[in-house]
Design a protein that fits this description.
Elements: H1 2-18, E1 33-41, E2 49-57, E3 62-68, E4 76-86, E5 89-93, E6 101-110, E7 113-117, E8 122-127
Antiparallel strand pairs: 1-2, 1-8, 2-3, 3-4, 4-5, 5-6, 6-7, 7-8
């Protein structure tokens, strides 16, 4: 009986983390197209900050980002960043003009929705 009591917390730990196993992308064809970035959060189940951003993954390795100022002060800002799919993860340019990349893992992908986990934030996207 003591043996089972010791193993139970360990099994629960592994089960909890297996529920959110990362999804490995085969190539960029799985993410190509326009995506609406609905929200970002520091935790998967944490408070989500709404965003007005659109990402377009192009087949030439360019991620077009269009951000709309919700207050209307600056209008629209467009940025082209480099990206690739390597080892099942999205490697995207961290800063414009620098060859520094960050890895983003697909946590969940269900038809027209996708959740990415980047180094500091979770991004919640919907296919347009």
């Amino acid at each position: 009986m003591k043996k089972y009591v010791k193993i139970l917390p360990l099994a629960a730990f592994f089960w909890a983390f297996s529920a959110y196993a990362d999804i490995a992308l085969k190539d960029s064809s799985e993410i190509l197209g326009r995506w609406k970035l609905n929200a970002e959060s520091t935790k998967l189940d944490g408070e989500k900050k709404p965003l007005t951003v659109e990402w377009e993954f192009k087949d030439n390795g360019i991620l077009k980002q269009t951000a709309t100022d919700s207050v209307g002060r600056t209008g629209e800002m467009k940025i082209d960043m480099k990206y690739s799919v390597e080892n099942g993860e999205i490697k995207k340019q961290a800063k414009l003009g620098q060859e520094k990349y960050e890895s983003c893992k697909v946590v969940e992908k269900d038809g027209a929705s996708m959740i990415l986990k980047c180094p500091f934030l979770y991004y919640f996207l919907t296919k347009i």
